[in-house]
Amino acid sequence: MTSPHVPLAIAIVAEVIATTALKAADGFTRLGPSVLVVLGYLIAFYCLSLTLKTVPTGVAYAIWSGVGVVLISLMGWIVHKQALDLPAMLGLGLIVAGVIVVNVFSRTAGH
Q: What are the transmembrane regions (predicted)?
């Protein structure tokens, strides 16, 4: 049996790719990035739905959105040259801390 974290990880990666491509899609006026956005979100939501079979919705969504926000911010910095100031980095650090707390200490995290 596969860990529920495998489809969750795939969902996160697919969502990060889709969201990063969303800027390049330029309001869905560019075909290639637009296709990547749609496919990425389809994969992300399908894999998230698989995760929800065994992990509570709130926990799965907290992990998915928290890790996604941090990775998308990193991709914005790398791909789109978007800067993050100190308060933004501190906030992202708090998100990472929250995801760690949920995974390490919560009995509902689907271990």
A: 34-52, 59-80, 86-105
**Is 111 within a domain?**
no
Q: Is residue 36 situated within a structural domain?
A: yes
Residue 57 burial (CB < 10 Å; 0-12/13-18/19+)? exposed
**pTM (2 decimals)?**
0.85
Query: What is the number of domains present in the chain?
Result: 1
pLDDT digits (tens, 9 = 90+) for 42-51: 999 999 999 9
DSSP readout, 33-52?
Answer: HHHHHHHHHHHHHHHHHHHT
Would 68 be classed as within a structural domain?
yes
| Residue entry with tokens 């006026």 | 29
Tokens of 106: 């919560």
